[in-house]
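Thought: the user wants the 3D structure for the chain below. I'll pass the sequence to the structure tool as-is, report back what it returns, then summarize two notable features.
Action: structure_tool
Action Input:
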Amino acid sequence: MKAYMLAFVRVNDLETFNREYIEKAVPIVERHGGITVAVDENPSTIEGTVPGGRVVIVEFDSKQAAENFYNDPDYQPIKAWRQQVSESDSIIFEKGF
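Observation:
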């Protein structure tokens, strides 16, 4: 079953973030079968309160694949850097009703 990682990321220096994080993280995402579905710097809130910032949706073949990406040893130093220079709220969820 397809799974999705949804992240709200708030960062001050977007150019550095893109260069230092995105360029290094995307190959690891792809190694785990992840495909970036959508990225929006200024999403519209239609109901409730959301954390704000950049919204990213990444599709994986399964919840396990998404968790494998997040826990990949190669991703850990990249994640640690991201956590130092940004704030984020992220979830992994499966498609379905």
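Final Answer: Structure generated. The chain has one domain: 3-94. The helical segments are 14-31, 63-71, 76-85.
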